[in-house]
Amino acid sequence: MLRTKNLITFAAVVAVASLCITTPSHSSPFAATAVFSGGNNGGGNNGGNNGGNHDGNHGGNHGGNHDGNHDGNHGGNHDGNHDGNHGGNGGCNGGGGGPVCNAGGPYVVECGSGPLVVNLNATGSTGATTFLWSTNYAGAVIADPNAAQTTLTFTSSSNCCNAQFYVALTVGDGTRTRSCSTVVRVTDTTPPVIECPELAKVICGMDESPASTGTPVVTDNCDTHVQVTYWDRIVLQSCAAERLDHSVERTWRARDNCGNVATCVQTIHSVKVLVPIDVLPGTCPNVVTLNDCAPVRIAVLGSATFNVANVRAGTLKLYGEHCAGGPVIPYCAYANDVGTPFNGDVTNCECTDANGDGFLDLVFLFRRSQVVSGLGLANLPSGTSKRVVLVGRLCDGCSFVGTDCVKVP
Hints:
By secondary structure, this protein is mainly β. The chain has helices at 210-213, 368-374, and strands at residues 54-55, 71-74, 79-81, 107-110, 115-121, 130-135, 141-142, 149-155, 163-172, 177-187, 193-195, 200-203, 217-219, 227-236, 244-255, 261-271, 273-274, 277-279, 296-300, 311-320, 332-336, 361-366, 385-394, 399-407. It has four domains: 26-87, no CATH class; 107-187, Immunoglobulin-like; 193-271, Immunoglobulin-like (Sandwich), CATH 2.60.40; 275-407, Sandwich (Immunoglobulin-like), CATH 2.60.40. It has a four-stranded mixed beta sheet, with no helix packed on it. The chain is rod-shaped and about 120 Å long. The two termini are 56 Å apart.
């Protein structure tokens, strides 16, 4: 019997690639115009005079003194030597100067039922004097968005398996800014906690399903709808003379939506129906002489709550307690009111010599020689009592058991 549930997987939020934005320290009021001379004049760079922008003589490359790029007088804009790139338009995180943006991460946090905290760290950013954190996670709170080291607090949903969102960082040095981003991943590696029901006992014929024997208590750090299933293993008893008919080892399995699994085992005891019996009805104590040809009578006693007509006579067997002897099979059975159920301490071999009580009993006859040899009575010291067990099946298929004592003269 399996009970399943639909597993809902978070749509993973794709982390945004690093963003690199550079703001120049000053801007030109002029539109930059590139003037190209015919052929490959200027060595593949700018050649000629830039009206209102660059002004200079290009000798092979740019007019003036150029070391790999261009150098000249920028009319109304800026004047200086450019080495490598244009100031303010450099490559990501450091090209052309400016601060380096490093948001740390990726950050990994274990799913939980309460608020989760991520320690953000931008101390890997070099040349930065200002910081600004932000996130796309709705409801998340950044303790101090302007600090290099701060915390981000958020509450995950009930389905947080492998979810992720991003955190953006912008750093500045007073003149230029850089931006970057990183990922926060929410994982769940913690299995559910499962606690099985206590030992359950049922009488043969009673319901053994979880509705009667109980279900486990299951909790999880994140998933509120853990999938719970079970399977049974039936363990039969090696000795037919025991009250216990069989055990059920019920293994419960709890699986959360991230595939984490926990199990526990519940034990259920199914016991035989207990019926009253009387060895040598009408006598007490139940002395079985060893050298006698008369059969040994043992009666299954009827009562207001037990009808002996439900006994399948061909299934009866006689054992010593805990299978210490037997089985001995009866050779004959008949119905008669011969005894009365005894409510005393049968475990200490107490008994009654009461006869019929008005309810029909089922009397079984056993050959004395088989009882003596099969139960090992001849090996017992004189005056010793031995507990015996009568087992069989009822018409509904359930097993029953009855106990009494015999005494060696």
